[in-house]
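Q: My labmate handed me this sequence with no annotations at all. I'd like to see what the chain might look like in three dimensions before we decide whether it's worth expressing. Could you predict it?
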Amino acid sequence: MAQSNDRPLRFIDIGANLTDSMYQGIYGNSKKHEPDLDQVINRAFQAGLDKIIITAGTHHETVQALELCTNHENLYTTCGYHPTRCNEFNDSNENEILHQMKELIEKNSEKIVAIGEFGLDYERTQFCDIDQQKRYFEFQLKHLIVLNKPLFLHNRAASKDLYDILYKYRDQITAGGVIHSFDGTLDEALQFIQLGYFIGINGCSMKTQTNLDVIKQLPLENILVETDAPWCGIKQSHASNSHVKTQLTTEMVKKEKWIAGKMIKDRNEPCTIIQICEVIHSIRGKQESFDELCEKIYLNTKRLFFSAQ
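A: Here is what I predict for the chain of 309 residues:
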């Protein structure tokens, strides 16, 4: 377990795509190695992860995630439709899909800790056009907020429309939420914070110096961390890389040369969560100790997703 001084560091990864086929050794349509998800999960818990929220973007993905959750008490998940999957809705089936989601959440209330991943993605409209995205984000929001779960929100180049819809329902949204994988401007972040939301930071949030300049100005009490694994690892080309202390490259092999117990190059894992915290700590000018920063973010996360525990 990650440790500093005499107290173990504690982390919660608020977003990891553990149902992704890469953890079954499948990349695209090609199998490169044996499934190693159990090893990935074990590495995470050995690295100080206390809990992991498995991101789901369809009903089917939530069902898959729940199967993992039954085998690991510290795994949790979400339920909702990702904006790029909104074409699965239409006039004739929308109420049936809604009923399926509500039923699944109510039956698995302890393990499904958030509504989502849902929101707006204006960078990938080839999968679902803007009007369809807005319609079914709002459809899900207005019908599922009655379940009083935090919102796990997707936002790509759509801050104004996302904010406007959240503002419209601000009085009905009582459990808060997080803007996941945030890479917007400081003004956008502060608007969401003022509306009561946390900001989720991962490797894709930290690619450029402009990104880092935004993050270092965010209030620590509004920051959560995530890996978005197997995506969004910190790369050598990223501005954040120079702030990373915990180097894991010696633990990595190419997927074609997989060995049991080794990480895969360019496939992110929850165990890298410490790197996200190291970058935040460094760019904030070490205003607090690393222990204090990690613990504050951990408690932020518990407050949003696990306040009943």
